[in-house]
Amino acid sequence: MKVTKLVSTCDIKDCPTIYATDRGTFLVQGETPSDHGLQIPAHETLVEIPMELLQKAIRDNLI
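The structure assignment produced for this chain is given below.
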């Protein structure tokens, strides 16, 4: 899989980030919340990203 960084909230590697793949999908880096109260299948996960990250990606026409 080829991964391309689209947008991040900072310049270091441990911040929320959106990546595009050569599969026509997105990867999202963010916090793993534990207090959501949802039942998520074992093969899936949730990540929490700041609204600012999505707004920046939309504003910059990245998604």
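Interim note for the steering committee: DSSP finds one helix and three strands in the chain. Strands lie at 3-8, 17-21, 26-29.
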